[in-house]
Amino acid sequence: MTKNSSNFKISVLQTNCRNCSLSSLCLPKDLVGAEIKELETIVSQLPPINKHGHIFNQGDKFTSLYVIRSGCVKKYQIDADGNEQVIGFSMPGELLGIDAIGTGKYMSSAEALDTTSFCHLQYSKFEDLCQSIPGLIKHILKMAGQELVAEHDIHKAISQKSIDERVAVFFTSLSTRLKILGYSGSEFNLPMSRHDIANFLGMQPETFSRSLKKLVTDDLIDVNLKHIKIKDLDNLRTLAGHCDTCPSSSKVMNG
Amino acid sequence: MTKNSSNFKISVLQTNCRNCSLSSLCLPKDLVGAEIKELETIVSQLPPINKHGHIFNQGDKFTSLYVIRSGCVKKYQIDADGNEQVIGFSMPGELLGIDAIGTGKYMSSAEALDTTSFCHLQYSKFEDLCQSIPGLIKHILKMAGQELVAEHDIHKAISQKSIDERVAVFFTSLSTRLKILGYSGSEFNLPMSRHDIANFLGMQPETFSRSLKKLVTDDLIDVNLKHIKIKDLDNLRTLAGHCDTCPSSSKVMNG
DNA sequence: CGCGAATTTGAGCCGAATCAAGCGTTGTGG
DNA sequence: CCACAACGCTTGATTCGGCTCAAATTCGCG
Q1: A247 pLDDT tier (thresholds 50, 70, 90)
Q2: pTM for this model (two decimals)
Q3: Rounded to whole angstroms, how far apart are CA atoms B85 and B50?
Q4: A-chain residues near B130 (CB < 8 A)
Q5: Helix runs in chain B, H state only
Q6: Looking at the partner chain, which of B138, B145, B155 has a beta carbon nearest the beta carbon of A103?
């Protein structure tokens, strides 16, 4: 550490938002050149974490917001009885920690499902910057609003939909989100376990497994371990009950 | 209308936040005197609406945020098949419309369950005011964060808890919220129908009715039509599984 | 190759949905 | 003020979807 400063440099890199491939989805979205430069002064890129690593833990004092750059994150809570509830899965461009603003501590844990890189924003600085950059408050409120919409969608799905419908909702939603990120919406690898998906969708792993089989039998999807191929998106959407409610075809997945 | 201007005056009253009894719970909470005065310039009090009246409708273009002053509001969505999903119930001091910020249109409808009065804030003006009043950003983000936490709680309840547990969650949550507003937390009238509560909690009205009976038999509550008396809050909380997760003893009810 | 973890499969059961009355309350009009 | 209609709520009987428990299989990893 004393030999040279490279360790420190690696651990906290100043971020260049202007050249970031996510800039059109991320915080810079509603900002102009000079503002992005200002934003960069409070954004730092932390070293990537490996699978099972945590960005923050439930109960920790809230200090910072985080933005996923690459990878995938599972958000979950553990209650007093040790029961886990998966709240959602976060993808690149998405903001983590909004639900902590109201309470002052992180209400959930954020765990990497793959090697995940992300940016760090100290919240107090972020709040200050909101004063000088109008687009920033616009963006974070939009993100918060979208999270709420997604929560309403999952609330409805668990509340009213059958098992197969919920699974269809999950896949159509995931497909849409991947497409927005520039990936294939019809073929992808699931970064999360069956257990986590089932938990998120309010069902047992066994039940999820049976539903997967059913969707394969009905020729809606192909499944090969973690690899999913959507064969009939239209009928999958119909099964999911493509909600008018949600404009972007239900972004259920980020809970 | 031409005879005098009283009609107009009644329809949009400039609001005095400083004298409002809700100021300690509402937007002025984190503001100082001069700022509240500034806030007042964009807040107007609309005439109260009666039971079944709507503050806004799903699909309408998003223009404004609203704050409940008195009464109670049901938030709900109707999907393409005509199925209703009750998203939550809003009480005085709570902000309506946050989930519309991300999409530009109201994603749900807000219906008065009783005569309800509320304040109106044009969102564009609100955004502008955020630039000059730091506390405003703080407050709305807190509100958004709390809504998210509440959504996570209801997600978990519907996902994992039994019928009786969910009903217990509902009553303990409602009790807590009423207490915060200065009402009795142990005895109150339900402004919403059994149908709406059941829908919100992801169950059938028949099932809710049977669960009510069970809680009465177990001496946890008394029920007389809309009137509820909580007889054993401790055990009701235990049944609800008082989540460590949520600091204010689960504010599930505003979904 | 072998072990442990994750996933699938199977059998049986139970909780909650559904269907169908019946009852009580509220609101309306005579 | 009462009668009747309409609605909301409760109760009962039956059915069924999904859970539970148990075991087999496959996968991932050392």
Answers
A1: very low
A2: 0.92
A3: 22
A4: 130, 134, 137
A5: 6-11, 33-40, 123-132, 134-160, 163-180, 194-200, 205-217, 233-240
A6: B145
